[in-house]
Amino acid sequence: MRIGELARRTGVSERSLRYYETQGLLTTERTPGGHRDYPEAAVDRVIRIQELYAAGLHSERIRLLLPCMRDQDGGPSAIAAPRLVADLSAERDRIDRLIA
Hints:
two-stranded antiparallel sheet
């Protein structure tokens, strides 16, 4: 799907989608004409990125986290490194303190 359709389906601006790409959060193929061509799974990925930003994470942390998440449910992958799990637990505790 083209960037405009992804933006429409996720409610995220095209500019933000380009930013996600430059930050390594979202990948895309290019058509022979140079247009971005996103897979269907990009919809779930963008929604997940938005949820992580809303939770207070910054793009570098999200970039490290995304490979260890399942797009459908957000649970940790079996290949998640123990240090990443510990870091995420600490981040969750920080967010809980902010909420409290």
